[in-house]
């Protein structure tokens, strides 16, 4: 296992993004179509927040009436904007940050994805799944 491997070697580079004009319904569609759990919210190429699928579940299931409800009632999405639901105080890493450093950050925090930002621009995203897949490749 290489000790100085940069996160850029395992991050997702073609990132699905949202902007603050998008709706939470659009976000849910992107989560499901792309089988992802985190979407950076951008203004141009600058990241301003991160929306997780868990954020959507938190607001939508609070509205669920029946325990056996499988489909999310998207009516509740109209009550919130992406800016109200997204995480704003982000921890980000540079593309030269080592995979080990990323693993240390994620192991100590309560989130599962980090935006990779160089000079203020979103370059990619790295998730705990990316880290696990990297470790599996080492064996």
Automatic annotation (TrEMBL):
Residues of the CBS domain: 11-69, 86-139
Keyword Iron attached: no
Gene3D superfamilies documented for this protein: CBS-domain
Short name of any one Pfam family annotated for the protein: CBS
Keyword set includes Membrane: no
Transmembrane intervals: none
Keywords tagged on the record: CBS domain
Stored PANTHER family: CBS DOMAIN-CONTAINING PROTEIN (PTHR43080:SF2), CBS DOMAIN-CONTAINING PROTEIN CBSX3, MITOCHONDRIAL (PTHR43080)
Stated name of the protein: CBS domain-containing protein
């Amino acid at each position: 296992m290489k000790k100085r491997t940069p996160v850029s070697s395992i991050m997702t580079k073609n990132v699905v993004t949202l902007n603050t004009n998008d709706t939470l319904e659009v976000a849910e569609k992107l989560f499901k179509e792309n089988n992802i759990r985190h979407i950076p919210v951008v203004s141009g190429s600058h990241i301003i927040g991160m929306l997780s699928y868990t954020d959507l579940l938190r607001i939508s299931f609070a509205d669920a009436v029946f325990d056996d409800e499988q489909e999310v009632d998207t009516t509740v999405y109209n009550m919130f904007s992406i800016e109200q639901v997204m995480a704003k105080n982000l921890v980000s890493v540079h593309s030269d940050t080592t995979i080990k450093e990323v693993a240390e950050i994620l192991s100590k925090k309560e989130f599962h994805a980090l935006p990779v930002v160089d000079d203020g621009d979103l370059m990619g995203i790295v998730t705990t799944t990316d880290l696990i897949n990297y470790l599996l490749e080492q064996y």
